[in-house]
Amino acid sequence: MEHHSLWQTIFYRSLAAHEKIPASRYLQLATVDNHGHPHCRTLVFRGFNQDKNQMYLHTDNRSEKMSQLERHNSVEACWYFSETREQFRFSGHVESISDKKSISHKKSISQSEQSKTTSCSPEAQRLRLTHWQNLSDALRESYGQNYDIAKPDENFVLLILHITRVDYLRLAPLPHLRVIYHLDASENWQAKSALP
Amino acid sequence: MEHHSLWQTIFYRSLAAHEKIPASRYLQLATVDNHGHPHCRTLVFRGFNQDKNQMYLHTDNRSEKMSQLERHNSVEACWYFSETREQFRFSGHVESISDKKSISHKKSISQSEQSKTTSCSPEAQRLRLTHWQNLSDALRESYGQNYDIAKPDENFVLLILHITRVDYLRLAPLPHLRVIYHLDASENWQAKSALP
Question: What InterPro entries would the database entry show (chains A, B) (predicted)?
Answer without folding.
Answer: Pyridox_Oxase_Alr4036_FMN-bd, Split_barrel_FMN-bd
